[in-house]
Amino acid sequence: HVQLVESGGGAVQAGASLRLVCTGFSERTLTLTWFRQAPGKEREAVASIYIYGHFPNYADSVKGRFTISQDKAKNALHLQMDNLRVEDTAMYYCAAGNPSLYQGSWKVPREYDDWGRGTQVTVS
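The structure assignment produced for this chain is given below.
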């Protein structure tokens, strides 16, 4: 396992934007996913990209507001978050691995081998 590193979090007002960055994953990684977890709540899959997939996957709560992308040349993963809401407040984690390609597997934390320590996003 390797340690991933997230950055780009911060404290912003509702309606603002943030851009998260994740680095440290292997060039051989097939699936990259952003998770988030608020105090007292379960870890939630937010957005995921599979290098051989046609469309990225998003949680319903962030569709139309968040965009996941990969900079292959720099081995970096991004999460562009627009029109942030108070309910987006959480610790955001980057995860890398090769989960099952069956529906829903991308949302399961145990399917991922490598994680970062998180970057805090606070919206008020």
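Interim note for the steering committee: The chain has a mean pLDDT of 94. The longest strand covers residues 90-97.
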